[in-house]
Amino acid sequence: MERRRLVLLLSTVASLQVSNSASSGNIPSRFWCFSEEIALQCGVTEQCKKERPAQKNAAIVNIGLYYESMCGGCQEFFTTQLYPTFQKLSSIMNVTLVPYGNTEETKVGDHWEFDCQHGPDECLGDIIETCTIAIVKTLANYIPFINCVEGSKVTPKEAAEKCAPQFSIPLDQVLNCTTSDYGNQLQHQMAVLTDSLVPQHNYVPWITLNGLHTDDIEEKATTNLLKLVCDTYPGEKPPACNSG
């Protein structure tokens, strides 16, 4: 009986140590076994060895982009890394776009006012993209349009007017959304998503991989996103990975 109590006590202590170690890295528990590096950081290497075989059938890779519509670095990442990679690897990756970045919001009555880093044109660009995401709904249908807007050398509204016909985007509906209470609340939700980041963002573009952000992830994403997605995906790699 005493031996059994001792084993239970040691097991409890070990579990607490693992929990504390993982918590210290600000990494949610569902990601502890995502890679060997994260498992090592969180102190759960042995536990994850038992779980990792089942993760060979894991879901597609999730890339999150927290950005601003007139941020030069964001535009470059979108047009040279994110969109080209999505075109090649859409079968194994999903993209979450959050156009808000370093904007500050203030509630005035039941309405939100936004102060954007690059001025009112950027605020309009952000909410145009937010409303497009909400109205079009399907990533494969709205990401080419947003890529076109981000790659244009004119104001976001001018870019939207130029790009919408090319990708069958209902621009009148989108622009009506930007001035509506609905659009205002949609943009507030982008603020909520951005403010919920752990760790908090301190620059843009801010890139997450399966919900995680590290300096290493940011560096790999901005230099060769295709390779990062291919290396992360645990299943059979598509042919495009051979060129990454």
TrEMBL record:
Does the record bear Ribosomal protein in its keywords?
A: no
Q: Tell me the keywords, alphabetical order.
A: Glycoprotein, Secreted, Signal
Q: What is its main location?
A: secreted
* Family of this protein: Belongs to the GILT family.
Q: What is this protein called?
A: Gamma-interferon-inducible lysosomal thiol reductase
Q: Which residues form the signal peptide?
A: 1-24
> What Gene Ontology terms describe what this protein does at the molecular function level?
oxidoreductase activity, acting on a sulfur group of donors, disulfide as acceptor
Q: Where in the cell is it found?
A: Secreted
Keyword Glycoprotein listed:
yes
| Pfam families, per database record | GILT
Entry superkingdom: Eukaryota
Which Gene Ontology cellular component annotation is one that this UniProt entry carries?
extracellular region
